[in-house]
Amino acid sequence: MSTQRNYLKILVSGPYASGKTTFVKTIASNVLTTEVPVSSSYESQIKRYTTVAFDYGKTSVDGVDVYLFGTPGQTRLQFMWRVLSTGMHGYIFIVDGTSMLHVMRSRAVYDYMKSLGEYPHILAVSKQDLPGSVKPNIVAQLFGIKQENVMPLVTYERNSAYAVLKRIVEIIKRG
Ligand SMILES: Nc1nc2c(ncn2[C@@H]2O[C@H](COP(=O)(O)OP(=O)(O)O)[C@@H](O)[C@H]2O)c(=O)[nH]1
Ligand SMILES: [Mg+2]
Fold it and tell me: Is the C-beta atom of 43 inside 6 A of ligand 1?
């Protein structure tokens, strides 16, 4: 892969309520989101708004323009992932680190993401500020992924989110 490019398209994917929209809002300027009130009563216990099409934001890392696209999280909207993945250079997969159960649910969603093709990617385990959250090394073991490709994330903290973004940009540049 050529390292000579003037922009990167990076997808932010992961299961429902893992922190995708928050990630894009924390990192990017000119954010566009397509959040609407949650219609299902079960899902509305988890959060009030959900992404129906995608989140979009632009930022830059080391002088390279980065276009971020956050996927919708509900399973019935997963067809959008293939659409959004067109032309992407890599992706960040946010694992919901709330509990072991959340991590195991994220696993199935990760398998779906991988079925879209081989792309450079990184795992970020969100909600590290919550007591009892699952640590990245445990997720690396469970997912069978190198520890260096699994990072901790507190989604609404800029430094934390930026560290994740910087790492995926490095991985993409390495080719
Ligand atoms: N405590 C904590 N809450 C988070 C974190 N990331 C996301 N959230 C919360 O989790 C919920 C879902 O986040 P959202 O970004 O809408 O998830 P999405 O469905 O993946 O887009 C919201 O209430 C967020 O405030 C985090 O790192 N720590
Ligand atoms: Mg969202």
Answer: no
Neighbours of ion ligand 2 (CB under 5 A): 20-21, 51
- In whole angstroms, give the CA distance from residue 59 to residue 67: 7
Asked if residue 19 has its Cβ within 6 Å of ligand 1, the reply is yes
pLDDT in tens, 84-110: 999 999 999 999 999 999 999 999 999
- Which residue's alpha carbon is nearest to atom 1 within ligand 1? 127
Q: What is the pTM of this model?
A: 0.93
Quick check: CB of 155 below 6 Å from ligand 1? yes
Residues in the chain: 175
Tens-digit pLDDT profile for residues 13-61: 999 899 999 999 999 988 887 777 887 777 777 777 777 677 899 999 9
Domains of the chain by range and CATH?
7-174 (3.40.50.300)
